[in-house]
């Protein structure tokens, strides 16, 4: 409690007693065409340089000022600035609607009202993406993908060709908290990772935190990906969609009650299975291969102080091969939210959430038939308060609770199968947190953000805990007993503080330095030997033997703008140290293990590096250049002789170049080029013979000491708007893209096996004598040059 008291006292340092001559102006900033609230809109005051605020995650702003006449400016990138002159004599509510900027700017013209967020904002290690910019970039098979765009940013890497896993500043893919309308998405992949589940047509805002994470977020070590869905147009009905190479999509939105409530429904489905049915090959046309997404949201404005929202996401992948093997997985989330204004300065968001990730597969092979099902569910409720104390202090505080339900495996045998009913033990856990934080402006140059989060995690019954012999490694042979716990009975408890701090100091109008520190605790994680993040990964909670992950990160950055904010440049260095990281023993059994603690070893990890970024957001040519140099290491007793070794996703160099150029009001050309050091792997150091065949031999003392070949790729795209007739609502466009334009054969995997000596000729189809085979390596690559085309429409 001493820490909490310290935060509260610091929050009120500059909060003097408000006299009767001070009043509050507040309201919502909305999109003038759709009526949706705008996140992060800037509100400044001409008469008080350096004084202002931004609209919060729900579009609400509040300023408390002395009585007087003021000129307020409301600004959002890509929208026309609105200026309002007010005579502040009492509390005032002022809602603002911003119109999109219609003027096409020439290359040398600079938006004078463009905010200098990258210099003036206290937030660092944060990236915010505009969905329209994402749609203009080249995409695999023409499918716009938020995750693949994030992988082009410094400090964020992919697992390999086509995959949607994120590896942020040395963290594994399960160390990223992905939120869709505040609900957790546990697996964001379609088609085994080649596409993500986030349909860009339904997305309003995308923001990722790599460090300097505010106190309201927790539960993961490496990053927070915060995605908000659109709310729907509350002024008029609209429809948009597209027909692409592998999928089609359709979005419908409009008012339920004009200017009071609205809805949006957005769907997407692939149709590879439809083409397979046209094949004359009966072994192929019976296969099923598709995924679908459905986003839906509705809201209702009860009055000026109350508004409710309901949103959901439902998506699934379905594979079925020759009626003998089937695999399906998917996510479902539901968010119910209530925004309430107690007064002009106190804002409350109440949220009730549900999230489900499940997968299953079945094998229909006579006596070996069975069906496997697995589920992970989360029920959550939270209260988030924002208190606008004064222009120099914005206080946030809240509490949340989560019920986790883990159902790792249930196996049901088929008719006449040799298998029997089998199920791993279900697990249950409660996770709670309370937090408080403040954005505190000390003076014109110094702005700090500080906060504290206190998290609690407890395993609860029904369940059991295995007991092992003391002083020896845990294994099936050393298991001696187990203890059973009743429903809701506490099994184990973890808790701890998570301090957060960030500061910004302005050097001059063009530059600033920033620093941040945060501690994160993670109580659930994935048990997997895969790097890419497969749908059959198993999530496990902290328990009596597996301690929660703890990560501390410090970062320092220098930010500078050039040519009146036309160019933004930054360099950030970071150092992260992590405790209780897990890795697995060689040949570990994970999926069908009821006491998985026998396969796990734990230790420490480090990640450090530097990120360089140059952006151009203004003019006909826009884009960014990013370069990351980094190192990620682990040290775990029992692995690599207890010495440090590279993490699987350690990549020394990572480069991305993204460019978009408006050739004309109708034609935009885009390109991106990426380069990355090959990921760390373990190659065999020798071979031994078994029954005349050579078998690769791996040295356990060289964990991840080798490298895959370096990765690089060029993508190109063109977006062409059709000539639209005057006064016609229908807007049409075509998107053309080429993925991997110079057909680079990037290695997806390398296997070591005996290969046929091609210099020897045989008279039969047999491989020939053993002497005709030689040890070798086989490189598997997934994609060569892939063109795609998409037709888009909107009316």
Automatic annotation (TrEMBL):
<keyword id="KW-0675">Receptor</keyword>
<keyword id="KW-0472">Membrane</keyword>
<keyword id="KW-1134">Transmembrane beta strand</keyword>
<keyword id="KW-0813">Transport</keyword>
<keyword id="KW-0732">Signal</keyword>
<dbReference type="InterPro" id="IPR008969">
    <property type="entry name" value="CarboxyPept-like_regulatory"/>
</dbReference>
<dbReference type="InterPro" id="IPR037066">
    <property type="entry name" value="Plug_dom_sf"/>
</dbReference>
<dbReference type="Pfam" id="PF07715">
    <property type="entry name" value="Plug"/>
</dbReference>
<feature type="domain" description="TonB-dependent receptor plug">
    <location>
        <begin position="142"/>
        <end position="220"/>
    </location>
</feature>
<dbReference type="InterPro" id="IPR012910">
    <property type="entry name" value="Plug_dom"/>
</dbReference>
<dbReference type="Pfam" id="PF13715">
    <property type="entry name" value="CarbopepD_reg_2"/>
</dbReference>
<dbReference type="InterPro" id="IPR039426">
    <property type="entry name" value="TonB-dep_rcpt-like"/>
</dbReference>
<keyword id="KW-0998">Cell outer membrane</keyword>
<dbReference type="InterPro" id="IPR036942">
    <property type="entry name" value="Beta-barrel_TonB_sf"/>
</dbReference>
<keyword id="KW-0812">Transmembrane</keyword>
<protein>
    <submittedName>
        <fullName>TonB-dependent receptor</fullName>
    </submittedName>
</protein>
């Amino acid at each position: 409690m001493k820490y909490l008291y310290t935060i509260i006292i610091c929050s009120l340092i500059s909060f003097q007693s408000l006299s009767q001559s001070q009043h509050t102006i507040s309201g919502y900033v909305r999109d003038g065409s759709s009526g949706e609230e705008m996140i992060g809109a800037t509100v400044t005051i001409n008469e008080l340089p350096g004084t202002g605020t931004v609209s919060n995650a729900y579009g609400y702003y509040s300023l408390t000022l002395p009585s007087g006449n003021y000129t307020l400016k409301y600004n959002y990138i890509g929208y026309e600035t609105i200026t309002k002159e007010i005579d502040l004599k009492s509390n005032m509510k002022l809602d603002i609607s911003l119109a999109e900027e219609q003027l096409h700017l020439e290359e040398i013209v600079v938006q004078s009202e463009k905010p200098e967020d990258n210099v003036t904002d206290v937030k660092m290690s944060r990236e915010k993406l505009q969905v329209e910019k994402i749609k203009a970039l080249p995409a695999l098979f023409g499918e716009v993908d938020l995750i693949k765009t994030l992988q082009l940013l410094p400090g964020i890497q992919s697992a390999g060709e086509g995959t949607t896993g994120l590896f942020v500043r040395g963290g594994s893919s399960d160390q990223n908290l992905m939120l869709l309308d505040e609900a957790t998405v546990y697996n964001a992949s379609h088609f085994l990772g080649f596409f993500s589940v986030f349909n860009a047509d339904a997305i309003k805002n995308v923001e990722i935190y790599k460090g300097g994470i505010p106190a309201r977020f927790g539960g993961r070590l490496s990053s927070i990906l915060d995605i908000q869905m659109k709310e729907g147009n509350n002024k008029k009905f609209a429809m948009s969609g597209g027909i692409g190479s592998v999928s089609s999509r359709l979005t419908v939105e409009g008012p339920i009650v004009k200017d009071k409530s609205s809805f949006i429904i957005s769907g997407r489905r692939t149709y590879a299975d439809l083409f397979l049915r046209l094949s004359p090959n009966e072994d192929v046309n019976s296969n099923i291969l598709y995924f679908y997404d459905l986003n839906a949201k509705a809201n209702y404005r009860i009055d000026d102080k109350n508004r409710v929202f309901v949103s959901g996401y439902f998506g699934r992948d379905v594979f079925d091969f020759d009626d003998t093997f089937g695999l399906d997985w998917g996510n479902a989330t539901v968010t119910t939210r209530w925004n309430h204004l107690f007064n002009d300065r106190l804002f409350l968001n109440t949220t009730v959430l549900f999230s489900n990730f499940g997968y299953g597969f079945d094998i229909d092979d006579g006596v070996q038939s069975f069906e496997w099902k697995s589920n992970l569910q989360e029920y959550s409720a939270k209260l988030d308060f924002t208190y606008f104390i004064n222009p120099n202090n914005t206080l946030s505080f809240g509490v949340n609770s989560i019920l986790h339900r883990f159902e790792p495996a249930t196996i049901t045998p088929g008719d006449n199968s040799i298998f029997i009913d089998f199920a791993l033990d279900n697990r249950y856990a409660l996770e709670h947190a309370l937090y408080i934080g403040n954005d505190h402006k000390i003076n014109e140059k110094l702005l700090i953000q500080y906060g504290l989060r206190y998290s609690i995690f407890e395993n609860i019954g029904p369940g059991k805990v295995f007991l092992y012999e003391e002083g020896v490694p845990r294994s099936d042979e050393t298991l001696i007993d187990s203890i059973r716990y009743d429903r809701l009975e506490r099994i184990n408890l973890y808790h701890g503080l998570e301090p957060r701090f960030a500061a910004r100091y302005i050097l001059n109008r063009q530059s600033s330095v920033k620093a941040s520190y945060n501690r994160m605790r993670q109580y659930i994680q994935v048990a997997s030997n895969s790097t890419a993040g497969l749908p059959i990964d198993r999530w496990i909670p902290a328990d009596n033997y597996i301690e929660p992950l703890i990560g501390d990160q410090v970062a320092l950055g220098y930010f500078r703008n050039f040519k009146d904010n036309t160019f933004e440049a930054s360099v950030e260095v970071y150092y992260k140290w992590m405790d209780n990281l897990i890795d697995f023993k060689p040949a570990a059994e994970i999926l069908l293990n009821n006491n998985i603690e026998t396969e796990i070893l734990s230790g420490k990890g480090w990640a450090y590096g530097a990120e360089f970024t140059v952006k151009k957001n203004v003019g006909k040519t826009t884009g960014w250049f990013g370069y990351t140099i980094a190192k990620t290491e682990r040290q775990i007793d029992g692995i690599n002789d207890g010495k440090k070794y590279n993490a699987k996703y350690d990549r020394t160099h990572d480069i991305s170049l993204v460019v978009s150029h408006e050739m004309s009001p109708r034609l935009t050309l885009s390109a991106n080029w990426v380069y990355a050091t090959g990921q760390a792997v373990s190659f065999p150091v020798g071979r031994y013979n078994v029954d005349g065949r050579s078998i690769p031999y791996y040295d356990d003392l060289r964990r991840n000491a080798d490298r895959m070949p370096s990765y690089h790729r060029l993508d190109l795209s063109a977006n062409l708007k059709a000539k639209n007739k005057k006064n016609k609502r229908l807007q049409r466009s075509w998107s053309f893209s080429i993925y991997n334009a110079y057909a680079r054969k990037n290695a997806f995997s390398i296997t070591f096996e005996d290969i046929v000596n091609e210099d020897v000729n045989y008279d039969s189809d047999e491989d020939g004598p053993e002497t005709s085979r030689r040890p070798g390596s086989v490189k598997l690559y997934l994609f060569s040059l892939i063109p795609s085309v998409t037709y888009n429409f909107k009316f």
